[in-house]
Fold this protein.
Amino acid sequence: MFAALITGKGTVEMVEFADPTPAPKGVVVDISFCGICGTDIHAYQSGKPYHPAICGHEWAGVVSAKGAEVKSFTEGDRVIVATAPACGSCEACRAGQADRCQVAFLSMIGRDPLAPAHGGFAQRIPVAAARVVKTNTALTEQQAAMVEPTTVAFHAVRRSGIHLGDIAVVQGAGPIGLGTMQWVKAAGAGVVIVVEPNEQRRALAIELGAHYAVEPGEPADQLVKQLSHGLGADIVYECVGRPFAVQAAVDLARRGGSMCLIGLADQDAAITPGSWLIKEISVTSALAYMHEEFEMAMGMIADGRFRTEPMHSSTIGIDGLDAALSDLASGTSTQTKILVDPRL
């Protein structure tokens, strides 16, 4: 069996692995679809090493084999990748910080004892049974493959402390930004503004429910001031993942406002500390998600409160991964979310 791995700057290699078998507490999943994440794009752009288990970590599929100690799944179950639940026995759990469980964290970043040697850009993948969740039966295969990034945004908005009626700005209309925008609306924001340079993505943001979509810079500054009587946004969600965008988010917020950091920049960000102090900005950040949030997010996709379909722009086979990453890394791509189907 072969899996695609990003092994250097602008380099994708097909690496051969033995056909997987499940560990006693593991399962083997036949991959239906795997999404290309911003993490994959950053790795392709920079060539910086990252753990192979997260090279393709937005997958969904069907359990094809299970270990002898696995009781909660059976062959044929549709599943999505998730993170393990809190273990209840690590130092964080014993300190009453189950939401910071060290075992769940290692699972989330692909460093748990049963972490595979590759990610979901493959036909099959062996993982710990604790790392998968049964797919909501109302979801299509394509919707299921977009649950992981959807849950990233879900977790961020839950952590952010948004209030009913808030003026909310979302910087960036990639998959995470568009997901964040939909959850912000579901959470009761009064006005939702998306800041995005790409005209096609601005149109998609409006289609998905944003009240306004505007170019960054002066147009965004003026619109936020106009809608907030010159005060600034109540909360700004940074989903661009570039160093310059961190300070830009704070610049759009009002005094006493909030900034939620979601996009992961691969370099240090220059900030103006004085503006943060003068505004008394409250900051939250969100890396990923918790186990229980996957079922919550799936339920809201199933009932139509969150729409994945407009964000799914194309489907490719594994042999098209290199070209797709090159396009997404160019900064001029018209794609939003590309799904890889290893069956093609």
